[in-house]
Specification:
heterodimer, A: 325 residues, alpha/beta, D-Maltodextrin-Binding Protein, domain 2, 12 helices, 9 strands, globular, B: 666 residues, MetI-like fold, 80% helix
């Protein structure tokens, strides 16, 4: 009995030793990375939104803060709008680098828990887009009037006899249902869901050179890859509406989307903290070409985010210096 | 995964002897025909009337949200919000401490601790599996994220069990508590988690605490239910015997009921872990971090990374499932029969494992091993993960799928178009565009025929509420998708279930498929289908079918296997062929199990159809998604309640007769 017991014990100890030895050996072979030195500036938390443009902003700023100011930067992925604002008010996020005018009018603006630091240099455009190849056959599609009577060109399995209008990501600003009604077009608003799903849908039709009409925006790195044109919508008039949820006469919505100044937001706590990073956030300004370049490296070329940002920062030392100064 | 309801005893059914033309299917068909005539005659003329709609509700809810936000961020918070905040900070800290511990141990130490602990309590096989799981975390280059997720799970599961097991004991011992708790549990499981994200964010902000709360809401019901089943499963005469010997109520609980319910309680723990893991991705939407965040952000920038992270979640889930199963089995006192020597042996094993863990951690610390598995190693910075290689492989598959000229596409696209044009759209038009009163009455009548009076009243009330809150058309849209997806899932599930009951090979092949499909985050397997079936509603339907059919298979298989062997033998004695036995005896007698499959399947389908709102399913899911991301609180909450109402209706209608018959038989 005790003989068997001790053999078991020996075997167990032996196995434990083998596991231990191999793990230690593996650890030795891989080498231990020492932790980095304490940063000169406190933690900064940036929020990365779902679109790649936002990723480009965040990682370029992260690179600048880390390399030039030795800040410790953390990136969170909280959904745009309400959830991210709540997170800022609670001190979970310090900075949002690209807000598409979701902020004005929220309770957070009223109680001053979040502060708007102005535009990041880019103007956002939202509109109705078609592939350029369609213009060869239907040059009239340059403006919305040309769509009238020709809606069935955009027929799809789910739209029946009507034409299909492919709506945008549920999280994006849109008013297309009211717009279609207001313009009296025979189109069916079909939701494609989140952006990757919408892109999958229209890019596949694009690859097959089929007609497609959809909600789209700029700056967007895919605009360099696909040749798209905007369908001109009626000019904006006084009192023309953009918030579909308010309801009312669809005619009031029958105008183009406004252009959006993309704002930088910081939490009031972060503003008060006097972090050296604040200066960079304040000065941060670039162009949609810059943003598309980085976004294309990340999403088009599948480059790691930090690497893509580093590449841009290296090539634009002058611009970056104006932010740091 | 949804094992719970199946544990209810299945009552031996009696084959009915009514002529076929008086059977239920015919009656349902007659009602449907009536609805169809009304639809043809009065199409589009009677949408839900505005006078029966509570239009200011949305506005009121939005006002309520503003009030909540003001309360939350006020300088002098009220008591309620102070408590909420205290709880939030506590949970945030809890998660942070768990994560710190895992990183402090260093990656070598964590691996050694996990593997050796499992070895001690779960045996060698489970330990090898654990080691393989840690290797997966390391080689996928997602070590840090995996540990963050593990920490989140530790916090969520321990909180769920802390609340769930005592509650389950209370439910198991008292009918009154059960009557009170059951509707809450039902709602928690029927409402897709997506729907309660928004209230959770408002009350708990974003971050680990919010993710933990959302996870706990979802993971408590299995803990409660299975614990209650275990307590109630203790034979009455055992309890009576104990009582007659003069034991107190407390002693009965601790000495009789709990030990006898041990197996079920441990099954409850196992299910709680799996339910919690299925929330990782949704938790990632509100700051849960870890693998969930990788899936969510990867979906937009690098889908291949999202898929890789999804599979790491699967590995984690399957490992935790098998490990808890093994531990429950090995530590069962009923099987161990420990004598003094055996106990001493176990104590020595514990000591050896403890010493080995401490030694490894000490050695790792002395050697300066990093807290998480490094990406590169050595002086030449050689890459030591397989991440880049794996991503390349996954990407090449995705590239192939995205190509609209491939042969796969020429099969999937017409299939999608067929499902859409021949099934979904006609049904959707029928339900949405028919006169509201015939649809409402028709569905109520069908509920009455299928399940009886009480489910019919539930149906009427719930559908009425949906109409009054102003989302009738959206709810009918979602209902049509649920019905189509359930139909497909049940057809596939019953077919495969019968095959699995007849063939061991099929049965064995189903288990890993089942595990993967149930633990892989739904968003991950929607990805390929948005390319393969680019017709807006269909990817969501396919994902729902994939999620639900394994459960149907399992229930049908079990139902058929449980058919009394006497019946099968009797049929065999009369010279029935195997096929006849199957078609005339086994399948009809397994009718209840199949119905149970429909019941479970339909609830699971509903959960995914709502997530489908993210990939173009429209309906209530889109409303919730949009409400959540754009901060339309009113819209999101109304749509969430409509989903709850729809879920309760579908649940009651599909389980009605079974419950009634059981009551009738006592």
């Amino acid at each position: 009995m005790s003989d068997r017991l001790s053999r078991r014990r020996m075997r167990l100890a032996g196995l434990a030793l083998v596991v231990l030895a191999s793990l230690v050996a593996a650890a030795g072979a891989l080498g231990g990375g020492a932790r980095s030195a304490a940063p000169a500036c406190d933690d900064v938390v940036l929020n990365e939104n779902s679109w790649v443009g936002s990723t480009a902003n965040v990682y370029v700023i992260k690179n600048v803060l880390e390399t030039k100011l030795k800040c410790k930067v953390k990136v969170l992925n909280i959904t745009e709008g309400q959830p991210s604002f709540q997170a800022m008010a609670d001190g979970k996020i310090d900075v949002v680098l690209e807000d598409w005018q979701n902020f004005p009018g929220t309770p957070y603006e009223k109680n001053k828990s979040i502060v708007n630091l102005g535009g990041n240099g880019i103007t956002g455009v939202i509109g109705w887009y078609i592939p350029r190849y369609l213009l060869q056959q239907y040059p009239q599609f340059r403006t919305w009037r040309g769509l009238k009577g020709k809606e069935s060109v955009f027929k799809s399995p789910e739209s029946g006899s009507q034409g299909m209008f492919l709506g945008g990501d549920p999280s994006y600003v849109q008013k297309d249902k009211a717009l279609i009604k207001g313009l009296g077009l025979n189109l069916k608003h079909v939701v494609a869901g989140a952006e990757p799903a919408q892109v999958a849908r229209w890019s596949q039709l694009y690859k097959q050179k089929k007609p497609v009409l959809f909600y789209w925006y700029d700056p967007q790195y895919l605009n360099a890859q696909y040749d798209l044109v905007q369908v001109q919508l009626p000019k904006r008039f006084a009192g023309c509406q953009d918030d579909e949820k308010k309801g009312g006469d669809p005619k009031k919505y029958a105008c183009a989307y406004p252009s959006y100044r993309l704002d930088k937001l910081v939490s009031s706590d972060f503003l008060k903290s006097g972090s050296p990073a604040l200066k960079v956030i304040r000065n941060f300004k670039w162009t949609s070409a810059d943003q598309n370049f980085v976004a294309n490296l990340i999403s088009g070329k599948k480059m790691p985010k930090d690497k893509a940002a580093a590449q841009w920062v290296k090539a634009h030392a002058k611009t970056v210096n104006t932010w740091v100064k | 995964m949804t094992e719970l309801v199946t544990e209810r005893p299945i009552v031996a059914p009696v084959l009915s002897h009514r002529p076929w033309w008086r059977g239920k299917p015919v009656q349902v068909a007659l009602v449907a025909a009536g609805m169809w005539i009304a639809y043809r005659a009065l199409r589009l003329e009677y949408p839900w009337p505005a006078s029966l709609t509570w239009t200011s509700l949305q506005f009121k809810l939005d006002e309520f949200q503003v009030w909540l936000i003001e309360q939350r961020s006020a300088d002098d918070k009220s008591v309620v919000f102070t408590i909420f905040d205290g709880f939030r900070i506590f949970v945030d800290e809890l998660v942070a401490r768990f994560a710190e511990l895992l990183f402090w141990l260093t990656w070598v130490g964590t691996t050694a601790a996990g593997t050796l602990l499992v070895w001690r309590f779960g045996g060698l096989r489970a330990a090898i599996l654990t080691l393989a799981a840690f290797a997966t975390f390391a080689l996928s280059g997602l070590w840090r994220e995996s540990m963050e997720t593990l920490a989140l799970m530790l916090a969520a599961v321990s909180l769920s069990l802390l609340v769930g097991i005592p509650l389950g004991i209370a439910v198991g011992r008292s009918r009154r508590v059960e009557r009170f708790v059951r509707p809450l549990l039902d709602s928690a499981q029927i409402v897709p988690a997506f729907a309660y994200l928004m209230p959770v964010v408002i009350l708990f902000s974003v971050g680990p605490a919010a993710a933990v709360v959302a996870t706990v809401i979802y993971a408590i019901p299995p803990a409660v239910r299975i614990t209650a089943l275990g307590i109630r499963g203790v034979p009455v005469n055992t309890v009576e015997a104990a009582t007659s010997m003069g034991t107190t109520t407390r002693q009965i609980l601790t000495k009789v009921q709990l030990p006898l319910a041990r197996r079920m309680i441990l099954l409850g723990v196992n299910q709680t872990i799996l339910f919690a893991l299925s929330m990782v991705v949704i938790g990632g939407l509100i700051g849960g971090g870890g693998l969930g965040a990788v899936v969510n952000s990867g979906l937009f920038t690098t889908p291949s990374l999202a898929i890789l992270a999804g599979f790491v979640i699967v590995v984690m889930a399957i490992t935790l499932d098998r490990v808890t199963e093994a531990i429950a089995e090995r530590t069962d006192p009923a099987k161990q029969h420990l004598d003094a020597a055996g106990r001493r042996r176990l104590r020595r094993q514990s000591l050896a494992a403890g010493v080995a863990i401490a030694g490894t951690v000490l050695a790792a610390k002395l050697l300066g091993v990093s807290s998480s598995y490094p990406e590169t190693a050595g002086v030449q910075e050689r890459t030591v993960t397989l991440q880049a290689w794996l991503l390349e492989r996954i990407q090449s598959v995705l590239d192939y799928i995205q190509d609209p000229t491939s042969w796969v596409f020429s099969i999937t696209e017409p299939t999608a178009t067929f499902i859409l044009q021949k099934l979904l759209l006609p049904l959707q038009e029928f339900l949405v565009e028919g006169p509201w009163f015939t649809t409402l009455l028709g569905l109520t009548l069908i509920a009455y025929i299928v399940s009886g009076l009480r489910p019919a009243i539930t149906t009427f009330v719930m559908l009425g509420a949906i109409g009054i809150t102003g989302v009738w058309a959206l709810a009918m849209d979602t209902l049509s998708q649920v019905l189509v997806a359930t139909l497909i899932a049940v057809v596939i599930g019953v077919g495969l279930g019968i095959a699995a009951s007849e063939s061991r090979t099929v049965s064995r092949a189903m288990r890993p498929i089942n595990d993967v499909l149930q633990t892989l985050p739904q968003l991950v397997y929607i990805i390929p289908f948005i390319y393969l079936m680019p017709v807006s509603i269909v990817p969501g339907i396919v994902a729902a079918v994939l999620y639900a059919f394994p459960v149907v298979v399992r229930l049908v298989e079990r139902g058929i296997n449980d058919v009394a062997p006497e019946a099968v033998e009797a049929a065999g004695a009369f010279g029935a062929t195997r096929r006849q036995v199957l078609a005339k005896v086994k399948v009809p007698l397994a009718g209840d199990a199949i119905m149970l499959g429909v019941n479970q399947g339909i609830i699971m389908v509903l959960a995914v159809v709502v997530i489908g709102g993210l990939v173009g399913s429209g309906g209530l899911g889109y409303e919730v998604a949009q409400g959540l991301v754009r901060g339309y609180f009113g819209q999101g909450v109304i749509a969430s309640f409509a989903i709850l109402a729809l879920g309760i209706t579908l649940d009651r209608v599909t389980q009605g007769t079974r419950a009634k018959r059981k009551e009738g038989l006592g």
